[in-house]
TrEMBL record:
Subcellular location: Cytoplasm; Endomembrane system; Endosome
Protein transport among keywords: yes
PROSITE patterns: PX
Xref: SMART domains: PX
GO molecular function (one): phosphatidylinositol phosphate binding
UniProt-listed PANTHER family: PX DOMAIN-CONTAINING PROTEIN (PTHR46209)
Membrane topology, record value: Peripheral membrane protein
Family, as annotated: Belongs to the sorting nexin family.
Protein name from the UniProt record: Sorting nexin-11
Residues passing through the membrane, by range: none
Organism name: Caerostris darwini
Keywords on record: Cytoplasm, Endosome, Lipid-binding, Membrane, Protein transport, Transport
Amino acid sequence: MLEILSGQPDCQSFIKLKVETRIEPYASYVTYEINIETNNPSFTFDESSIRRRYSDFRILRSMLAKQFPFTKIPDLPPKSPFKNTFDMKFVEKRREALEEFLVKLLFKNIFLSSRAFHLFLQSSITIAEIKEIIGGKSNYVDVNWPVIIKESTWPLKNTDDKLISNEEGESICAANATSLASSHNSSLGCKRVSFCDLVTVAEIHST
């Protein structure tokens, strides 16, 4: 499991991320299970586990590119229409690439302000429903999610309320060569969310 650290040693936040392959009997496609453990206040859940398809990752990337037109979005592994979907070497290589994609997004502070990204990571609603939320076609709220009316895309700040940046405007401090700042509350969706059974109910934050 990859661990992303930020902050001072005495009040350090972390995000642990692991992507695992899941193949159901008689399924026609592979799903990838995104497991997160965190104490980062940008996240609604301390622990979550949700499954997404490769095509879902592609749609997420498109939404992020539209939301952040002046920010470079990490690349995804390419489509491979001539590969056997269940070839285990191919599946494992894709899993590693998808995990790397998510780590790179977490490393760039600006993406933690994205409703689409948070809903993708920690809710069981479909990617189509996420698109409806982001497009303003759905407008009712789950009581378990914090409501922030206006979504921010500003850079995050450290515990001293100072922007952290390198030449690309990104923070650097890492375990496993990655890092992110944590003092930001994200804007999370306007739809009744049915969370996956694997989310620990006790970890739901009350608002």
